[in-house]
């Protein structure tokens, strides 16, 4: 087993509980960690035997474009899509951060982290 990570992805998107947040938008950060077997690709040096980073990024970007009220829901959607697109991965973990959330005080970011293992 091994891990592939896409860390520090940033998006400007229109998520938030309040209608105003969905109108003005905000900056979000995403860190994604995939657990999968990397032995075949490590030995062969062939892209088709591993997770293509570009496809993984596209999946995250597409979900970030669809508005959500809660970070939890957004993260859940990404987990679903990643597991659907890559049936051979074992587990996925995601952290989604909202920068400068409207809390009435100083907070650099609010973050949720979800993890899911593929069911046998």
UniProtKB/TrEMBL annotation:
InterPro entries: Dihydroneopterin_aldolase, FolB_dom, GTP-CH-I_C/QueF. Its EC number is 4.1.2.25. Signal peptide: none annotated. This is 7,8-dihydroneopterin aldolase. Pfam families: FolB (PF02152). Catalyzes the conversion of 7,8-dihydroneopterin to 6-hydroxymethyl-7,8-dihydropterin. Pathway: Cofactor biosynthesis; tetrahydrofolate biosynthesis; 2-amino-4-hydroxy-6-hydroxymethyl-7,8-dihydropteridine diphosphate from 7,8-dihydroneopterin triphosphate: step 3/4. It is an enzyme of class 4 (lyase). GO terms for molecular function: dihydroneopterin aldolase activity. Keywords: Folate biosynthesis, Lyase. Belongs to the DHNA family. Residues 4-116 form the Dihydroneopterin aldolase/epimerase domain. It comes from the Bacteria. It catalyses: 7,8-dihydroneopterin = 6-hydroxymethyl-7,8-dihydropterin + glycolaldehyde.
């Amino acid at each position: 087993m091994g891990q592939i990570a896409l860390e520090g992805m940033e998006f400007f998107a229109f998520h938030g509980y309040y209608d105003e947040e969905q109108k003005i938008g905000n900056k979000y950060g995403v860190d994604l960690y995939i657990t999968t077997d990397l032995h075949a690709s490590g030995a062969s040096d062939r892209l088709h035997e591993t997770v293509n980073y570009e496809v993984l990024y596209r999946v995250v970007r597409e979900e970030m474009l669809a508005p959500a009220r809660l970070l939890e829901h957004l993260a859940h959607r990404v987990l679903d899509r990643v597991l659907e697109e890559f049936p051979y991965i074992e587990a996925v973990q995601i952290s989604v951060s909202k920068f400068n959330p409207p809390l009435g005080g100083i907070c650099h970011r609010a973050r949720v982290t979800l993890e899911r293992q593929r069911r046998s």
